[in-house]
Write a structure and sequence with these properties.
It comes from Candolleomyces eurysporus. Heme binds at residue 376. Helix content is 51%, strand content 9%. It has one domain: Cytochrome p450 (Orthogonal Bundle). The protein is globular. The strands form four sheets. A five-stranded mixed beta sheet has the order 1-2-7-4-3. Strands 5-6 form a two-stranded antiparallel sheet. A two-stranded antiparallel ribbon has the order 8-11. By secondary structure, the chain is α+β, with helices and mostly antiparallel strands.
């Protein structure tokens, strides 16, 4: 009689055999693309773990070894277990111009109004979900394909989070639906927040409490971890480079005195925008940006064909540190993107050159927000949100790093992402004039 251990051993052997076969078949499709790391069955597994811990070094190695070309790295982040990475403005432009047939996509006070937007339980629920979902995402990618749905359910806590949010948002959404039914959906006095936007855009069958709560949860996740990381990095750089503080304060005071705390004012904060953009260049949230799933094989301008089913991305961190693209690429220059005529007091609108240099503008040499049609759609709101918070801190607080350090903390890398440092400190002091 065969023992359970024997059955288990056969099952494991069968699974490993299948994984080996699947790995070899996938590798055949991309053998023409050079590899950083190992492309053997066992070696690629260890290289994928290495990518989690030091992916930025692997991408930098490929960027230097294959300039203006493509290379691949083993990664658990991709369903194919490979990420194909493009380097150089020309290939980035190829990805920018790729159609949806070829590639496709693999905040509280705006979402809702008072008093919910300041409810501590509501805000804490969103914050914890954003942190937990990042952990869940890696748990899922590290799991065998058949177990991923179960792993996602067990680690993400989505059902419990949605249930808790419905306690806060359910009555509000139901009231909006009632008002739409009784007063009409085109009434001029509708609340201007994301609940309204989602209800306006949703087809009739999706105008439900459950659907709106799910969409709000997704949008908050997308906003929380990126904007908080970016703001932290900006504050660290302000503390490390105090010579920029007074010019930035002067600009903020002048602009807000004339335009108030409005969207128009945010657009005119050219020096602050440049400081933020430069921080994003040297301390961005991505090692590989604009990752997309290839839906249909397509050929880049250098003749390399990317097969269907693979993930392609842009070496963003390496691009932003490339000395052939940026003068003194590794040196922080907070006013790098300020146009010469940006401070013209008689100008009614920002110059065309200054608009081109704005943080939200898309460029094959600055890919913090991605490129093309699938670039981050929330970048306009996110930049203004961060700009307003940074401006408020500058006007109301002095800040410095402990020990008068002049080097902003690096943060840490995890796979294709980078995070602001978790244990670094900034010293704040309320300004006497405020």
């Amino acid at each position: 009689m065969t023992s359970p251990a024997a059955y288990f051993g056969l099952a494991v052997a069968g699974w490993i055999s299948y994984q080996w076969y699947w790995f070899r078949e996938n590798l055949k499709k991309v053998e023409h693309i050079p590899t950083v790391g190992s492309d053997s069955f066992i070696g690629a597994y260890f290289s994928a773990w290495k990518y989690i811990l030091s992916g930025h070094k692997m991408v930098e190695e490929g960027y230097k070894k294959y300039p203006n070309g493509v290379f691949k790295v083993p990664s658990f982040e991709s369903s194919s277990r490979w990420i194909i990475i493009a380097s150089g403005p020309k290939l980035v432009d190829d990805i920018r111009k790729a159609s949806d047939d070829h590639v496709a996509s693999d905040l509280p006070t705006i979402d809702v109004r008072l008093p919910v937007c300041r409810n501590r339980d509501y805000l804490t629920t969103l914050e914890k979900f954003a942190a937990r979902l990042m952990i869940s995402a890696y748990s899922v990618t590290l799991s065998p394909s058949p177990l991923r749905p179960l792993m996602g359910y067990l680690t993400s806590n989505v059902p419990a989070t949605e249930k808790k949010l419905k306690q806060h948002l359910g009555p509000i959404i139901e009231e909006r639906l009632r008002q739409d039914a009784e007063l009409g959906r085109d009434r001029p006095d509708k609340p201007n927040d994301m609940i309204t936007w989602l209800l306006d855009l949703a087809p009739e069958e999706l105008r439900t409490v459950d659907d709106v709560v799910t969409r709000l949860l997704i949008s908050n996740f997308a906003a929380i971890h990126t904007t908080s990381n970016s703001l932290c990095d900006i504050l660290f750089h302000l503390a490390a480079y105090p010579e920029y503080v007074e010019p930035l304060r002067a600009e903020i005071e002048s602009v807000t005195r004339e335009y108030g705390w409005t969207k128009e004012a945010m657009v005119r904060l050219h020096k602050l925008d440049s400081f933020m953009k430069e921080t994003g260049r040297l301390a961005g949230v991505n090692v590989v940006a604009s990752q997309r799933k290839v839906r249909q094989a397509f050929t880049l301008s250098n003749g390399v064909t990317i097969p269907e089913g693979f993930t392609i991305g842009i070496a963003s961190n390496s691009t932003h540190h490339d000395s052939s693209i940026y003068e003194d690429a590794d040196t922080f220059n907070g006013f790098r993107y300020v146009a010469e005529n940006s401070s013209d007091p008689d100008a009614k609108e920002p110059s065309a050159e200054q608009v081109k240099r704005q943080m939200v503008s898309l460029d094959t040499k600055y890919v913090l927000f991605g490129v093309g049609r699938h670039a981050c759609p929330g970048r306009f709101f996110a930049v203004n949100e961060i700009k307003a918070m940074a401006a408020y801190v500058l006007l109301n607080y002095d800040l410095k790093l402990p020990g008068d350090d002049t080097t902003p903390p690096l943060g840490f890398f995890f796979g294709s992402s980078r995070s602001a440092p978790l244990s670094a400190h900034i010293l704040f002091r309320k300004r006497a004039s405020t």
